């Protein structure tokens, strides 16, 4: 029983909780057991940096007590009350550490909750813990974490994507049914693609960013991670909405995303295939699954058109100038004065400037230093117009391309990532090759529009077993419901004759088996 | 031609307050050179008359009344400080002198 309940979808868990068939304590215990079994040890997934056992069980007991008592309070419970969730360790939480995957925040505990965490607590979702990520969300493989790499549940010698590899791996491996991620250039969608899970980057401003440690403020967005489109939509509904604490938060009503995800009808939906996001650089297997998805959608009545977005050629370059520029400014706050690590230089005079230099040298990892220096360069006198200025102009061109594309199509489609999960270590010494993982996800961040990644089947890169491929849908700003409708439809079409992809992940070695093998 | 020299990185690291060893400076110069060489073509991709976009959605500034709201106590604000004294953050000497 306990092993089986972790394999339910969040919506199914919610229904069983409401019907009194299971309790939240049972659900939380089952997930904590699963974390104990697969997350630790040498070969463990390491999806979690911190597990919050007592707090999760206390919340679960509270929900169960309210349900047992019945009456108005039980009626008023949020539909997801009692369904456990994991939180990316970039999002601040009272009572649990928030490291951002960095030595800089090793012992730091936030004195306040992020708005999304407040909403999760108010809705009484037990928080299982904080998930691993590339340091300060800078990376595409979760290898740049100061707390060790996270492994892909489909092949533990491969990357789980990044920066939100911990959230994606936790959800794929049934350690949590839901998780929160952040997406600056693809950090929710690309891990979703390579782990066979669903991840949404909402419209910029749809979900409050208050309490997400900032990397690039004009690009960062918090969003949901789940195994199904419906689950992602339900979590999005819960965390969306205006927040006066985030001045970029949209003052809009929250649409019924869950209902949109359940509308599996695509007849008459115009789907635009982005000419620039396929072909060279994309693996054969990825393109084959992409074509099959297009065929399935066409057969279901969607109208497939090709759209031309010529400026996307420069999106990656523009992103890798804008993001480091904003990051170099945002990360200036880690100075060893008000919070976080302080390191004193080993010799010489003890001045604040030298302490800052030593603190940031010891506290930041290589990728973070690389981006801060690159951003400092792009913003420096003499280069600003050519680099940062030009990148901002490219951003305008990309928005124009999207505007033209959405004249011809209701949603756009592409592979989420050019490749399936690659082996751990393969791109660690080649930053540029690592950056190419984000080529298909970055345009949405530059334009502020919503995007989702849903499983599109399995493909081999020619070297090992078949691994998940992600399909990305994009919609105009504030039209997040459209990506849920399209993704929900594709998910239903692809699992009509087969088990959904997330249910087909291979068995993982458990801690007990690991010990027995030693 | 090399875009970023070791001396450039040394200067940038000083601006960014990150102490770096000689080895780190050399490695970083090589890596940044490759990255900058790859991204610099953005300047050729745009005409002068294209407006710049700093933000994805058109937003107007948000104002609120200048009233004291719910906020952290001094104790909470100092709870993570590496060093504090008398309700203040404590730092090493600001000026490089005895």
TrEMBL record, chain B:
InterPro entries xrefs: Asp/Glu-ADT_sf_sub_c, GatC
Function: Allows the formation of correctly charged Asn-tRNA(Asn) or Gln-tRNA(Gln) through the transamidation of misacylated Asp-tRNA(Asn) or Glu-tRNA(Gln) in organisms which lack either or both of asparaginyl-tRNA or glutaminyl-tRNA synthetases. The reaction takes place in the presence of glutamine and ATP through an activated phospho-Asp-tRNA(Asn) or phospho-Glu-tRNA(Gln).
Pfam families: GatC
Protein name per UniProt: Aspartyl/glutamyl-tRNA(Asn/Gln) amidotransferase subunit C
Top EC class of this enzyme: ligase
Lineage, highest ranks first: Bacteria, Bacillati, Actinomycetota, Actinomycetes, Micrococcales
Family classification: Belongs to the GatC family.
The protein's assembly and partners: Heterotrimer of A, B and C subunits.
SUPFAM superfamilies according to UniProt: Glu-tRNAGln amidotransferase C subunit
Gene assigned in the entry: gatC
EC number assigned by the record: 6.3.5.-
Catalyzed reactions per annotation: L-glutamyl-tRNA(Gln) + L-glutamine + ATP + H2O = L-glutaminyl-tRNA(Gln) + L-glutamate + ADP + phosphate + H(+); L-aspartyl-tRNA(Asn) + L-glutamine + ATP + H2O = L-asparaginyl-tRNA(Asn) + L-glutamate + ADP + phosphate + 2 H(+)
Keywords (A to Z) from UniProt: ATP-binding, Ligase, Nucleotide-binding, Protein biosynthesis
């Amino acid at each position: 029983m306990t092993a089986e309940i972790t394999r339910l979808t969040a919506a199914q868990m919610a229904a069983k909780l409401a019907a009194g068939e299971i309790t939240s304590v049972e659900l939380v215990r089952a997930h904590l057991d699963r974390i104990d079994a697969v997350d630790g040890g040498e070969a463990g997934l390491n999806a979690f940096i911190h597990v919050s056992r007592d707090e999760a069980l206390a919340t679960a007991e509270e929900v169960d007590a309210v349900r047992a008592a019945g009456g108005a309070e039980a009626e008023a419970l949020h539909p997801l009350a009692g369904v456990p969730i994991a939180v990316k360790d970039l999002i601040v939480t009272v009572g649990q550490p928030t490291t951002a995957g960095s030595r800089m925040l090793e012992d730091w505990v936030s004195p306040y909750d992020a708005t999304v965490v407040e909403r999760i607590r108010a809705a009484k979702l037990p928080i299982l813990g904080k998930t691993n990520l590339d340091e300060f969300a800078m990376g595409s493989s979760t290898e740049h974490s100061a707390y060790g790499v996270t492994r892909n549940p489909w092949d533990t010698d491969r990357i789980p994507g990044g920066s939100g590899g911990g959230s994606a791996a936790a959800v794929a491996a049934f350690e949590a049914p839901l998780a929160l991620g952040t997406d600056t250039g693809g950090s929710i969608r690309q891990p979703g693609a390579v782990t066979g899970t669903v991840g949404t980057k909402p419209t910029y401003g749809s979900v409050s960013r208050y309490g997400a440690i900032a990397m690039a403020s004009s690009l960062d967005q918090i969003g949901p991670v789940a195994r199904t489109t419906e689950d992602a939509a339900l979590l999005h509904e819960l965390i969306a909405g205006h927040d006066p604490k985030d001045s970029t938060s949209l003052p809009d009503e929250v649409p019924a995303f869950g209902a949109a995800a359940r509308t599996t009808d695509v007849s008459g939906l115009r789907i635009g295939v982005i000419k620039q996001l396929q072909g060279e650089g994309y693996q054969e297997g990825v393109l084959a699954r992409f074509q099959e998805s297009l065929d399935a959608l066409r057969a279901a009545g969607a109208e497939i058109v090709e759209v031309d977005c010529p400026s996307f050629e420069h999106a990656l370059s523009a992103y890798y100038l804008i993001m480091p520029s904003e990051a170099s400014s945002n990360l200036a706050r880690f100075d060893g004065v008000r919070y976080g690590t302080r390191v004193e230089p080993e010799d010489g005079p003890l001045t604040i400037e030298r302490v800052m230099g030593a603190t940031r040298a010891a506290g930041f990892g290589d990728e973070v230093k690389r981006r801060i220096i690159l951003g400092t360069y792009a913003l420096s006198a003499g280069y600003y117009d050519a680099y940062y200025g030009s990148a901002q102009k490219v951003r305008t061109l990309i928005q124009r391309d999207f505007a033209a594309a959405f004249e011809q199509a209701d949603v756009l489609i592409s592979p989420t990532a050019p490749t399936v999960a690659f082996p751990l270590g393969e791109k660690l010494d080649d930053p540029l090759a690592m950056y190419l993982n984000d080529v298909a996800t970055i345009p949405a961040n530059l334009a502020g529009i919503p995007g989702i990644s849903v499983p599109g089947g399995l493909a081999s890169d020619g070297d090992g077993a078949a691994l998940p491929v992600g399909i990305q849908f994009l919609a105009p700003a504030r039209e997040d419901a459209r990506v849920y409708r399209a993704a929900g439809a594709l998910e239903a079409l692809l699992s009509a004759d087969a088990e959904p992809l997330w249910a087909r992940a291979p068995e993982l070695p458990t801690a007990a088996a690991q010990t027995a093998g030693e | 031609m090399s875009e970023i020299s070791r001396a450039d990185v040394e200067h940038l690291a000083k601006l960014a307050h990150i102490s770096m060893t000689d080895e780190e400076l050399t490695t970083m110069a090589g890596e940044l050179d490759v990255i900058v060489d790859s991204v610099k073509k953005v300047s050729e991709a745009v005409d002068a008359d294209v407006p710049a976009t700093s933000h994805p959605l058109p937003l107007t500034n948000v104002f609120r009344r200048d009233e004291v709201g719910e906020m952290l106590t001094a104790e909470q604000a100092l709870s993570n400080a590496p060093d504090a004294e008398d309700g203040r953050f404590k730092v090493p000497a600001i000026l490089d002198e005895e």
